[in-house]
């Protein structure tokens, strides 16, 4: 059997009281529906706020994304600038190498991977990282290559300062390098240097950087200086009147080492100037 409820609506004024008889089931159904409605409304409201929150979050992400894109573009441009500088460096180094007469295919070529310009609109992080790695590699290569060029320049400079050059004294040539009649006998004899006549006391200067090997008196050369220049070069200055250096002295091209004289087997005041390369006398006239 179903229970019933009577609902009474009593107005303020003296109008008729309204009554409504409802079944227990109906009342339950109405209450349940109302509860459902409230729950649904709650869900809709909550969902709305969640959407709002998501939208804001999304907008923030959009802004962040756009900022990062700009930063990435800037980085890509910077990287591109660096890449160009490396290429310019490689080119200028190639010019130095070619002026030195040495080339290095590997070092002067533009490194693979940094040849083309970057597309700043599509470059991603992975591509950027790849570019950075190849740039680092290129810079390392440049460093090694320039080290090599520096050494070459140093060698070239050392060789240049070690190679005899110029006259050892102001004077005039009286005897050349080669076979000549001996001034002391009838036979022809090899003259292994140049004779430069000059007044006694004229400065004798060394023709390249080096170290004095000996500064002594010998029966043939008289007061003689021998200098070692490295790279196989040695020079000899004979018949001096006065020696101004000692064995072991380090000297530079142009330093005064002796004074012209007529000591030893000599027939007049002059310098006997000899250049030896790896122990073999060579014609000093080629180096005057
Ligand atoms: Zn001589």
What does this structure look like?
The protein has helices at residues 24-100, 105-108, 125-162; strands spanning 4-9, 18-23, 172-175, 178-181, 188-191, 194-197, 203-205, 210-218, 222-230, 233-240, 242-243, 250-251, 256-259, 270-277, 280-282. It has 288 residues and is α+β, with helices and mostly antiparallel strands. Strands 3, 6, 8, 9, 10, 12, 14 and 15 form an 8-stranded antiparallel β-sheet that branches. Strands 7-13-11 form a 3-stranded antiparallel β-sheet, with no helix packed on it. It has a two-stranded antiparallel sheet with strand order 1-2. A hairpin with an 8-residue loop joins β1 (4-9) and β2 (18-23). The chain is rod-shaped and about 170 Å long. The structure holds zinc ion. Zinc ion is lined by residues 175, 191, 193, 195, 272.
Mean of residue pLDDT values: 88
- Coarse structural class: alpha+beta
Shape: rod-shaped
Number of helices, counting only DSSP H or I runs of 4 residues or more: 3
Radius of gyration, CA atoms, in whole angstroms:
51 Å
Mind summarizing the main beta sheet? Answer: 8 strands, antiparallel
Q: What is the terminal-to-terminal distance?
A: 141 Å
Bound molecules: zinc ion
What series of H and E elements makes up the topology? EEHHHEEEEEEEEEEEEE
Unreliable spans: none
> Which percent range describes the beta-strand content?
25-35%
How many beta strands in the DSSP annotation? 15
Helicity range? 40-55%
């Amino acid at each position: 059997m179903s229970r019933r409820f009577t609902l009474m609506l009593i107005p303020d004024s003296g109008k008729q009281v309204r009554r409504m008889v409802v079944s227990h089931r109906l009342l339950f159904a109405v209450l349940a529906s109302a509860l459902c409605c409230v729950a649904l409304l709650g869900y809709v409201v909550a969902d709305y706020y969640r959407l709002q929150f998501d939208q804001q979050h999304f907008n923030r992400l959009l802004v962040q994304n756009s900022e990062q894109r700009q930063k990435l573009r800037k980085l890509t441009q910077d990287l591109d600038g660096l890449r160009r500088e490396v290429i310019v460096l490689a080119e200028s180094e190639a010019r130095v190498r070619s002026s030195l007469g040495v080339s290095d295919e590997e070092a002067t070529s533009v490194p693979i991977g940094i040849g083309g310009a970057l597309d700043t609109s599509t470059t991603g992080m992975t591509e950027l990282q790849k570019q950075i790695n190849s740039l680092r590699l290129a810079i390392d290569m440049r460093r090694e290559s320039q080290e090599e060029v520096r050494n070459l320049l140093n060698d070239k400079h050392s060789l240049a300062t070690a190679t005899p050059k110029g006259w050892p004294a102001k004077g005039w040539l009286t005897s050349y390098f080669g076979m000549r009649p001996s001034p002391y006998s009838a036979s022809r004899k090899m003259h292994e240097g140049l004779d430069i006549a000059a007044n006694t006391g004229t400065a004798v200067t060394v023709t390249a950087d080096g170290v004095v090997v000996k500064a002594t008196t010998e029966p043939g050369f008289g007061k003689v200086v021998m200098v070692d220049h490295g790279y196989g070069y040695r020079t000899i200055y004979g018949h001096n009147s006065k020696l101004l250096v000692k064995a072991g002295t380090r000297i530079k091209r142009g330093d005064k080492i002796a004074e012209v004289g007529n000591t030893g087997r000599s027939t007049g005041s002059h310098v006997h100037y000899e250049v030896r390369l790896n122990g073999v006398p060579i014609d000093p006239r080629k180096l005057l």
